Amino acid sequence: MHKVGLSVWQGDITTLALDAIVNAANESLLGGGGVDGAIHRAAGTELLDCCRKLGGCPTGEARITPGFQLPSRWIIHTVGPVWHGGQHDEEGRLRACYRNSLALAAQNGVQSIAFPAISCGVYGFPAELAARLAVTQCHAALKAQTGPERILLVAFDTKMAAVLTAAILASNEHF
Ligand code: APR
After folding, report:
1. So what's the pLDDT on residue 55?
2. What does the pLDDT look like over 52-66, one tens digit per residue?
3. Distance between Cα 1 and ligand 1 center (Å)
4. pTM metric for this prediction
5. Which domain holds residue 110?
6. Per its UniProt record, what NCBIfam families does this chain match (predicted)?
7. Is 36 annotated as catalytic?
8. Are 119 and 78 in contact (CB under 8 A)?
9. Could you tell me the CATH number of the domain that includes residue 21?
10. Ligand 1 pocket check: which of 26, 28, 29, 35 to mutate, most ligand atoms within 8 Å of Cβ?
């Protein structure tokens, strides 16, 4: 379905049948709008019951649940930073989302994983900067060969697809 390494895919992340998809959640883990809402709608109410038991998730960290009604086996929920202008370690916290999600994926034997553009919607993070951070973190994980061998960066629209593609091309390594 997708070549090994890092690639961009445009569409609804809930339709992907991979080992895991990543949810851009909030600290309550009790659902919301955007991709969080789409994942909860597609996974079904068992997901909310399961998330309630997790007791939330601090920004930058990640938690794993089954995918329930989703075609993907797992959901890795991570909480991105809200963009407040870039002076509040937003970059470090977004890097942590990718790093911690990929580490949790590795711990669970996840070989294929898809990320939405974490924090680039409601949380207002600048897309180009977020794309650069995502590509850097994913390339590092692929090089370490400890976690997933196939990573999809999912764009929900053509603008984000172009931003993500440009970020991969601008990075000096291609997987
Ligand atoms: N599939 C893939 N990507 C999607 C989907 C989908 N079904 N729906 C939305 N997106 C994209 C958006 O276009 C955006 O580029 O996901 C990216 C992240 O946007 P948000 O979902 O708004 O997430 P975020 O910016 O991290 O804000 C998180 O929003 O939904 C609430 O509960 C969530 O409070 C949290 C906040």
Report:
1. 96
2. 999 999 999 999 999
3. 24
4. 0.97
5. 5-173
6. PRK00431.1-6
7. yes
8. no
9. 3.40.220.10
10. 35
